[in-house]
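Hi V.,

Quick status before I head out on leave. The structure for the redesign project is tokenized and pasted below; the design run finished overnight.
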């Protein structure tokens, strides 16, 4: 660490040289990014350009010998490349530049292999699963739209949506939809719209393009951001044949920007037709129900009871009278039978009564203690006894037994 203080500050050259010494320890590295701002001056041997990060708003100043760039020419605009470079520090101006020794263009095959590997990873994490996708609102009040600046895709979405539902409102964010700034700007717009409580659904759209043009919409950071959004997302990137990873993670994939405009809002004419049809069905149902109830009331009114309400009383009175007569007859018969049974029992009782036995001339002998005498041997001469006959009691004294 350099020794210094406010009283003994270090000159610029010392600091610049220290920075150069420190950076020289980094050594050469391979860097991947998107090439832009290529500046080739006539007659100059050195080429200056910028290498942008494909997912963040960052870039590095790059320089190389003209022959290094010519070895990979012609390069498409915003080509994705890999560079073998080393940090160069210019102490005089205090500027840092990456000095490139080799440039390789990242081929389509390699990019496809990377996308396939990323697709597999995201699928294994469940980001493409149907059960995590949110349903689109039936009638959004405000639609968020992320699109290119003054693009046909924007016009297609807005015009088709308003043609179907004129009252729909849009929150439009115009951003870069290709190149190094696309991921950063689309992500920022998505965060802003997703945090707005008024926005009911968000459309991310752009027109068709080459495979390289659509690469930002397969960026892992952007795809994960879409997966974590709380607002339903509609992807309308390119055309039917285009399939960036954003299509797979979005809640709904529209084949074109026009399709997205039609998908997010209902058709006013169609909905009015449905309402008219339902009104007709409701009216027919109510009419039929009222007609049925009216017929039921008329049938009830035509019944005899409603023509002569006393009919039910007369009928019930006759029934009560019949029951009254039957009950009297039944009770009389029961009493007569009961009387006959009683007379029979009385006759049996008289026949079996001790008094009947006495009436036939028999007598009952009782001791002075009131006990019945059943054997002559039970008495002794001089015992006082009572003799009960049919009519009265005779007192006697016993003599010798016979």
């Amino acid at each position: 660490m350099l020794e210094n203080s406010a009283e003994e500050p270090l000159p610029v050259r010392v600091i610049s040289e220290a920075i150069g010494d420190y950076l020289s320890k980094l050594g050469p590295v391979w860097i991947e990014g998107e090439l832009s701002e290529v500046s080739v001056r006539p007659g100059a041997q050195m080429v200056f350009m910028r290498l942008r990060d494909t997912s963040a708003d960052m870039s590095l100043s790059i320089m190389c010998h003209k022959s290094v760039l010519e070895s990979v020419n012609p390069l498409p605009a915003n080509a994705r490349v890999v560079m073998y470079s080393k940090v160069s520090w210019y102490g005089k101006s205090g500027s840092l530049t990456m000095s490139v020794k080799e440039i390789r263009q990242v081929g389509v095959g390699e990019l496809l292999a990377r996308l396939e590997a990323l697709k597999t990873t995201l699928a294994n994490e469940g980001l493409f699963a149907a059960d995590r996708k949110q349903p689109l609102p039936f009638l959004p009040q405000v639609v968020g739209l992320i699109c290119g600046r003054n693009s046909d895709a924007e016009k297609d979405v807005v015009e088709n949506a308003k043609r179907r539902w004129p009252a729909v409102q849009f929150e439009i964010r115009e951003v870069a939809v290709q190149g190094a700034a696309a991921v950063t700007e689309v992500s920022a717009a998505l965060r802003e719209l997703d945090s707005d409580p008024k926005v009911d659904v968000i459309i991310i759209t752009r027109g068709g393009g080459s495979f390289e043009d659509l690469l930002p919409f397969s960026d892992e950071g952007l795809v994960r951001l879409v997966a974590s959004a709380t607002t339903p997302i509609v992807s309308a990137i390119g055309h039917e044949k285009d399939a960036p990873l954003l299509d797979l993670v979005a809640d709904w994939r529209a084949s074109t920007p026009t399709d997205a405009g039609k998908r997010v809002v209902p058709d006013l004419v169609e909905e009015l037709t449905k309402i008219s049809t339902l009104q007709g069905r409701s009216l027919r149902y109510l009419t039929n129900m009222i007609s049925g109830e009216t017929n039921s009331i008329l049938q009830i009114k035509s019944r005899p009871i409603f023509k002569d309400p006393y009919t039910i009383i007369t009928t019930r009175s006759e029934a009560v009278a019949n029951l009254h007569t039957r009950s009297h007859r039944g009770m009389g018969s029961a009493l007569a039978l009961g009387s006959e049974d009683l007379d029979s029992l009385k006759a049996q009782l008289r026949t079996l009564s001790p008094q009947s036995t006495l009436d036939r001339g028999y007598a009952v002998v009782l001791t002075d203690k009131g006990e019945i005498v059943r054997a002559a041997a039970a008495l002794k001469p001089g015992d006082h006894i009572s003799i009960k006959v049919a009519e009265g009691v005779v007192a006697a004294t016993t003599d010798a037994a016979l």
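Above is the designed sequence. Residues 12-106 form a domain with the OB fold (Dihydrolipoamide Acetyltransferase, E2P) fold (CATH 2.40.50.140).

G. will cover questions while I'm gone.

Best,
W.
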